[in-house]
Amino acid sequence: MTPESDPVCLRPLGPADAEALGRCFERCYGTSYVDAGFYDPVEIRARLADGRLSSIIATHHAGEVVGHMGLSRARARCRTRATPWSIRATAAASSPPGSARA
After folding, report:
1. d(CA 25, CA 34)
2. 61: number of Cβ within 10 Å
3. Beta pairing partners, 19
4. Within 10 Å of residue 30's Cβ, how many Cβ atoms?
5. Separation CA 94–CA 32 (nearest Å)
6. What span, in angstroms and rounded, lies between the C-alpha atoms of 95 and 17?
7. Residue 91's beta-bridge partner residues?
8. What digits encode the pLDDT tens for the residues 12-46?
9. What does the pLDDT look like over 45-56, one tens digit per residue?
10. What span, in angstroms and rounded, lies between the C-alpha atoms of 76 and 14?
């Protein structure tokens, strides 16, 4: 498929997407991402449930997560958020295999 015929859908991250998000982070960073919780589906679901994580994901037609933009809170229901490296995950995840990565 070409990029023109393979549209990307943006939507909120849900608990059912936890494994796919972990795979996206592994494709982007190997095992070097600074927050290891993004590789653990149980931790991702816990952060979503208690409000420590608010995310938008990009998926392609097969449902694979190909991008992520997240806002993380230090504590559940905290009013301030931090997003230190989330934009890099989106850029790297959406790069075709073999291309330069952000």
Report:
1. 11
2. 11
3. none
4. 8
5. 18
6. 20
7. none
8. 999 999 999 999 999 999 999 999 999 999 999 99
9. 999 999 999 999
10. 17
| Domains contained in the chain, CATH given | 6-94 (3.40.630.30)
Interior CA angle at 19 toward 49 and 35, to 5°?
70
- Side-chain-facing half-sphere of 100: CA atoms under 13 Å: 1
CA distance 43 to 54: 13
CB contact at 8 A, 36 and 44: no
**Terminal C-alpha separation, the chain:** 23
How big is the CA angle at 47 (ends 43 and 52), to the nearest 5 degrees? 145
Query: Percent of the chain, pLDDT > 90?
Result: 56
Using alpha carbons only, give the angle 84, 86, 92 rounded to the nearest 5 degrees: 130
Number of Cβ within a 10 Å radius of residue 65: 23
